[in-house]
From TrEMBL:
<feature type="domain" description="RlmG N-terminal">
    <location>
        <begin position="4"/>
        <end position="180"/>
    </location>
</feature>
<feature type="domain" description="Methyltransferase small">
    <location>
        <begin position="200"/>
        <end position="371"/>
    </location>
</feature>
<dbReference type="GO" id="GO:0003676">
    <property type="term" value="F:nucleic acid binding"/>
</dbReference>
<dbReference type="InterPro" id="IPR058679">
    <property type="entry name" value="RlmG_N"/>
</dbReference>
<keyword id="KW-0698">rRNA processing</keyword>
<dbReference type="Pfam" id="PF26049">
    <property type="entry name" value="RLMG_N"/>
</dbReference>
<keyword id="KW-0963">Cytoplasm</keyword>
<dbReference type="InterPro" id="IPR007848">
    <property type="entry name" value="Small_mtfrase_dom"/>
</dbReference>
<dbReference type="InterPro" id="IPR046977">
    <property type="entry name" value="RsmC/RlmG"/>
</dbReference>
<protein>
    <recommendedName>
        <fullName>Ribosomal RNA large subunit methyltransferase G</fullName>
        <ecNumber>2.1.1.174</ecNumber>
    </recommendedName>
</protein>
<keyword id="KW-0949">S-adenosyl-L-methionine</keyword>
<dbReference type="InterPro" id="IPR017237">
    <property type="entry name" value="RLMG"/>
</dbReference>
<dbReference type="InterPro" id="IPR029063">
    <property type="entry name" value="SAM-dependent_MTases_sf"/>
</dbReference>
<dbReference type="Pfam" id="PF05175">
    <property type="entry name" value="MTS"/>
</dbReference>
<dbReference type="GO" id="GO:0005737">
    <property type="term" value="C:cytoplasm"/>
</dbReference>
<comment type="function">
    <text>Specifically methylates the guanine in position 1835 (m2G1835) of 23S rRNA.</text>
</comment>
<dbReference type="GO" id="GO:0052916">
    <property type="term" value="F:23S rRNA (guanine(1835)-N(2))-methyltransferase activity"/>
</dbReference>
Length: 374
């Protein structure tokens, strides 16, 4: 893992967030380097904003912070904190960091997009931009070659404008899009669907995990959420649209439910879904943070968790481990962690090592529901 990005006689020290003692992944990729190299000689107007979308840990924001009026747009709390930390570490001026649901600054001169894998998020962002961009704005997307599909280019053509691609460099490619305001369409409503067996209706903003249907892991976990008056404080960790937290609230009306996710769109969806599905929506609070970093230690009786196995575009198991460690810290003595996981992920070994105990409470061909007690 290289700790520093060096280009054009300039070096930035960049770290992923949160910083780990042993880090095998770097905080930027070849697509970032390609964008930096391509835009190096551009003359930028310091009065007009540039927009940077989906900047994983702030590599692009750091590079442009001294050159232009930067607004970074992200749905990730972790990416936001990584950007802030890297700006500080390199003694760079701050940039404006907003979430994907916020209003974008007007009259940008340059838009750099790290193209997301999620086509719903890409569509949302392209439609946002189409309503906003002047004709002279330069729009450049970037990603690994293997992540730029024909469908990606068709979405860019359909929702923003004429699209062309570059040659590949270091297995990365650029996508050039010419804004066409005549393509502007009304912004899409959140995707809404029902879970009839639990009488739940869910609204999902564009970047919510499994935003078009209930994922099969959550479907199994929904049938094994405990009900007991001993639960006063319950946490839905990695809440997504909040379906697990909503079910926990219904089964335990005496409990305060805290739903936690690092996605701003997930937290917004969760809040909307609590209003739609709970008689007392104030029973549930959704917050955006990194795992349980902002939750008081020894403050919860039950943590429910459906861990992700990727960070941005990288597959990793360290997020699940961080979730389990954080859960142990926030649980009261005798508090319970209930986890759903693909049986191939081997969560039982991790939970046994951390808690000293683990029990299988349900399983099917693909998933296992585990319980550990503090």
């Amino acid at each position: 893992m290289k700790p520093a990005l060096t280009l054009h006689d300039r070096t930035l020290k960049l770290n992923r967030f949160p910083i780990r003692k042993i880090e095998t992944l770097q905080a930027w990729d070849a697509a970032d380097e390609y964008l930096i190299n391509h835009t190096h000689d551009m003359e930028l107007d310091p009065q007009r904003p540039i927009l940077i979308l989906n900047d994983s840990f702030g590599a692009l924001s750091c590079w442009f912070a001294e050159r232009a009026n930067v607004t970074s747009v992200t749905d990730s709390f972790v990416a936001k904190q990584g950007c802030i930390a890297n700006l500080t570490a390199n003694q760079l001026p701050s940039v404006n960091i907003i979430d994907c649901l916020a209003e974008l600054p007007k009259n940008p001169q340059l838009v750099l997009i790290k193209l997301p894998k999620n086509n719903r998020l890409l569509t949302w962002q392209l439609q946002q931009l189409c309503h906003l961009l002047p004709e002279d704005c330069i729009v450049i997307g970037a990603a690994k070659v293997k992540e730029i599909h024909t469908s990606t280019l068709k979405l860019c053509e359909k929702f923003l404008g004429e699209t062309k691609t570059s040659l590949a460099v270091k297995k990365a490619r650029l996508v050039f899009i010419k804004p066409n305001a005549s393509l502007a369409k009304p912004m899409p409503e959140p995707k809404t669907w029902d879970v009839p067996e639990h009488d739940i209706r869910l609204s999902n903003h564009a970047n919510v995990f499994s935003g078009e249907s209930l994922d099969i892991g959550a479907r199994l976990l929904l049938n094994h959420i405990p009900q007991d008056y001993k639960y006063k404080d319950i946490i839905d960790l990695g809440c997504g649209n909040g379906v697990i937290g909503i079910k926990a609230a219904r089964r335990n009306p005496q409990a305060k439910i805290t739903c936690v996710d690092e996605s701003f769109m997930a937290a917004a969806s969760c809040t909307e879904n609590a209003k739609q599905n709970l008689e007392a929506p104030e029973q549930l609070t959704a917050i955006v943070t990194d795992c349980l970093a902002d939750i008081e230690h020894s403050s919860a009786d039950l943590v429910l968790c459906n861990p992700p196995f990727h960070q941005q575009t990288t597959i990793t198991d360290h997020i699940a481990w961080q979730m389990f460690c954080d859960a142990k810290q926030v649980l009261r003595p005798k508090g319970e962690l209930i986890v759903i996981g693909n049986r191939q992920l081997g969560y039982d070994d991790k939970l046994k090592r951390l808690f000293g105990n683990v029990e299988i409470i349900a399983q099917n061909d693909k998933f296992i529901v585990y319980q550990s007690v503090k």
